[in-house]
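Record type: monomer structure entry
Structure origin: computed from sequence
Chain ID: A
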Amino acid sequence: MYWRGHVGIALLAYAPVAGAIRAAGEPGLAVLGAAVAVAFATVPDLDHRLPVAHRGPTHTIAFAVAAGASVAFAAAIAVPAGDGAALFPPRVGTGLPPWTPAFVGGVATLSLGSHIAGDAITPMGIWPLRPFRERHVTFDLTPAANSRANRLFLGAGVAALALSIALTL
């Protein structure tokens, strides 16, 4: 998939989470999560600028989990929240729940995982279990360059997120 498709698939994956977070009374966190989902939707494709194979190490479940954990750790340092639940004392007036770092890391992992899933539907496929297992996965549904599929995923993701939020107003 190309960036539009990956952003759309990330929003499709995040939409139910956004609705649940919004329904739990955390609308600001729902917006933050959407921003994180979009920001991390195309991160695995940075391998085009790295000395590694495309759809190699950055397109694995291990990468998604490790990167998500790193994001959670960084969020715990950058945006301490709650009653000492972070590594450092909370900043007064942040208004963020104590589980914000875990939430941000989880959304980053979800978004990275959605990227992997999006590339699995292309003929090139992925090797999501490397380095632990050499299993190639492809559902061969559409080429990555299919502009219609990429636009369809983007539209569906935006619509799903909007519907999810609208249902919780």
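Annotation 1: Residues 1 and 118 are 6 Å apart (CA to CA).
Annotation 2: Residues 88-92 have pLDDT under 50 and may be disordered.
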